[in-house]
């Protein structure tokens, strides 16, 4: 991928699960953005070794992986013949492999197994949390179930005034514009426990934040119809509900964390498990 830094949309192909939904999302996005699509399939070593595993079992896995990559490439060509598609069969555990490839990507698309949080943290096969936490580019997580979007379409984005949320808002405007969709900008106020709260004052402040944050971008994207919604409740539940029929929910993340993604943020982490639509996490950097 030398010389193509920041140009490819990368999609991780899971050889053990159905890859059609995340690949369809990635292929459609590559078509919309007129970007190359790069497929990555990682074959994990069967033994704890730093050398290439040349055992018969591992070689069989590599052959099966190569066949799966060929199938995926042919499937994309049939869906979008004009999209430039490449693929790599790489040695290593999926999360570190995709983390390295993500350094050269414009966007990374992953499928989700919807593991429990404990399983997600400690499973060697888990890729969503570590890749989402460490990638320098936006990461899209597409669930396993078919998602029904409302017509006319709208993209949802969560806003909280942080630098990462500002980056997410910019990405969401661009995504809505490319899709010919409206944009639903949501700000959720969660009252603090055991502290006096004036809900109306808090909601007025959040409405002002929404207006200020979207003003300049609305001028830049005049064709995107924007709605503002300030509400009270739990951010994960309210954002997931707001994006129930959206083709995507966009949220910011605080930057690159460790392998377990502890810096991913509780709201983002919760949405990866709760939201039914694809979730796009956007770093502030």
Which structural traits does this protein have?
single chain; 285 residues; alpha/beta; ten-stranded mixed sheet; elongated; disordered N terminus
Shape: elongated
Instruction: Point out poorly predicted stretches.
Output: 1-5, 118-125, 257-262
N→C terminal distance: 22 Å
Number of helices: 9
Please give the share of residues in helix: 40-55%
The count of DSSP E runs of length 2 or more, i.e. the number of strands, is 10
| Strand neighbour order, sheet with most strands | 3-2-1-4-5-10-9-6-7-8
User: What fraction strand?
Assistant: 15-25%
For the sheet with most strands, the description reads:
10 strands, mixed
The rounded Rg comes to: 20 Å
Instruction: Tell me the structural class.
Output: alpha/beta
The helix-strand sequence is EHEHEHEHHEEHEHEHEHE
**Rounded mean pLDDT score:** 84
């Amino acid at each position: 991928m030398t010389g193509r830094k920041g140009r490819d949309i990368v999609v991780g192909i899971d050889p053990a699960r159905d890859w059609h939904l995340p690949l369809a999302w990635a292929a459609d996005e590559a078509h919309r953005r007129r970007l190359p699509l790069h497929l990555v399939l990682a074959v994990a070593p069967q033994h704890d070794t730093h050398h290439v595993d040349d055992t018969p079992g591992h070689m069989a896995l590599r052959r099966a992986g190569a066949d799966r990559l060929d199938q995926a490439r042919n499937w994309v060509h049939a869906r979008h013949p004009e999209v430039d598609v490449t693929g790599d069969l790489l040695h290593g555990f999926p999360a570190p492999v995709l983390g390295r490839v993500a350094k050269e990507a414009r966007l990374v698309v992953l499928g989700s197994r919807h593991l429990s949080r404990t399983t997600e943290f400690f499973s060697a096969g888990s890729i969503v949390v570590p890749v989402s936490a460490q990638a320098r580019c936006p990461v899209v997580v597409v669930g396993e179930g078919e998602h029904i979007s409302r017509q006319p379409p709208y993209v949802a984005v969560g806003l909280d005034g942080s630098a990462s949320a500002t980056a997410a808002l910019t990405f969401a405007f661009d995504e809505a514009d490319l899709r010919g969709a409206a944009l639903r900008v949501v700000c959720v106020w969660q009252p603090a426990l055991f502290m006096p709260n004036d809900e109306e004052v808090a909601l007025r402040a959040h409405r002002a934040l929404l207006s200020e944050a979207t003003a300049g971008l609305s001028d830049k994207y005049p064709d995107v119809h924007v709605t503002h919604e300030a509400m009270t409740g739990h951010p994960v539940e309210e954002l997931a509900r707001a994006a129930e029929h959206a083709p995507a929910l966009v949220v910011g993340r605080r930057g690159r964390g460790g392998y377990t993604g502890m810096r991913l943020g509780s709201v983002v982490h919760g949405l990866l498990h709760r939201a039914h639509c694809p979730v796009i996490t956007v770093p502030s950097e």
